[in-house]
């Protein structure tokens, strides 16, 4: 799951959830 989700992918998912990694 970790290697499947890249840093960029994580940010996209975070946006989909309405949460930013910069929080």
From TrEMBL:
Keywords: Homeobox. InterPro entries: Homeodomain-like_sf (IPR009057). One of its GO terms (molecular function) is DNA binding. Transmembrane segments: none annotated. This is Vpox Lox 5 homeobox protein.
């Amino acid at each position: 799951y970790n290697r499947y989700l890249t840093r960029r992918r994580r940010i996209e998912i975070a946006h989909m959830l309405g949460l930013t990694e910069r929080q």
